[in-house]
Amino acid sequence: METKRKRRGRTFRIRCHRGKNSSNLSRGEIITDAHWKDFVVWLKSNGFPKTKLTLGNFQGIGRGLLVTKKIKAGEVIISVPKKFLLTREMVIPELDNIFSKHGCSLKHNDNISAYQAIALYLALQKHQQKRKNSCDSFFLPYLKLLPEDFCSLPFFFDDNLFELLPKIVKDDVKRQRQKFEHDYDNVKCYLKLVNISRPEFIWGWFCVNTRCIYLKTNKPSRSLDNIAVAPMLDFLNHNYKAKIKGEYNNSSNCYEITTFTPYQKGEQAFINYGPHDNFFTLIEYGFVLSNNPYNYVSVDNEFSMLSIPNETIASKAEKINLLSSQGFLEDYTLRFSEISFRLLAALRFRVIQNHQLSFAWDDTSFPSKERQQQHRRYKQTIMKEWKSLVNGQMEHVDPENEQLVKVCLTWICDHVIKDAKDALMILEKCDLNDSSIWHIKQIWQETIGIVKSV
């Protein structure tokens, strides 16, 4: 990883370990880094509270925060004063100092969210640093520690690599790209005034995306404004086992991280981003974890592709509409040794025989009133039985229905495994030193493992 040594920050640190499961038992070595030393001096000289953490390198994992003294459960491990928090409230005056020279202001523009404003501020600092080869920003020591790029995120994958992602990941990345375009369009007029390029804003946008925290204070504000970027705090790596509390302390005017996991000297301290699966962590942060208990396989696509014997187009459409009206369409998942209740309920409804639910007439004919009444009675009866099943009053519709459900599940699982193996076959021919390739491979391998477990 020598060629990537300059890419400091959360994305760089975690991409190094290629999904190895972090453990607080791993011992690290203190890193003597010039930029880190400048950062620590900056913190101390500006009244940042003392902490028992420093930058460390952990074998097989990469960079993280190393414990320098024993930490007890219930102890505050990082306390970030308000003056260090990058918030909308803080950056807007700074931005207005620049944009007022061009005859405009962001102060009264409520359409600019905290997300957009902080991203714009960071992009501006980056631009000034590159243009002048210097920057007088208060946050300069912190800015020097931010990653140079976010190339491990699927947002930046080329078309060939992007197509190797699971459909659910591709769909979420497309939504992420749409969100970026919306934010970019909202600040584009300001970017042009100071010649900030699109790549520079993308960099600022992802600095916020990968580092922001929710900041709830007593001061009333829009939910879009309740985020901040907190120096020092964002050097903590994620571990789903870490027990922490993060909140703004209105008494001390600091954002505090309290750990309920004790640590010994030399261990790595962690934060917990929340119960996120590897799809989410790859899209949002650019890493995956082994043995992540929140992993799952989405089979929405397979459910829609499912071909059921004797199911007509009209019958399928009606069943899909009814599932949608009952709130049971999509979000069908498989987890380790677990088939989601939503999937089973939807399959039991899908495999109900056509004559029980659909009109039994030719597409070109018009049903008689008697046939319409018969259809309504059938549907009411079946919906009543299905709701009894959903509510736990029945175990299954009937033996034949249950057998068809098993057949459909087998087809779904076989289809998912085939897609996974096809993707892995292509990935084997790619550059295995590319962390993005490893991440996608791990996701597909985990997909096969989950499917086989059910």
From TrEMBL:
Residue ranges occupied by any SET domain in the UniProt entry: 51-274
Keywords, alphabetical: Methyltransferase, S-adenosyl-L-methionine, Transferase
Superkingdom as given in the UniProt entry: Eukaryota
Pfam families: SET
GO annotation, biological process: methylation
Keyword S-adenosyl-L-methionine: yes
GO MF terms held by the record: protein-lysine N-methyltransferase activity
Gene3D superfamilies on file: set domain protein methyltransferase, domain 1
Biological source species: Ambispora leptoticha
Name by which UniProt lists this protein: 1828_t:CDS:1
Keyword Cytoplasm: no
PROSITE patterns: SET (PS50280)
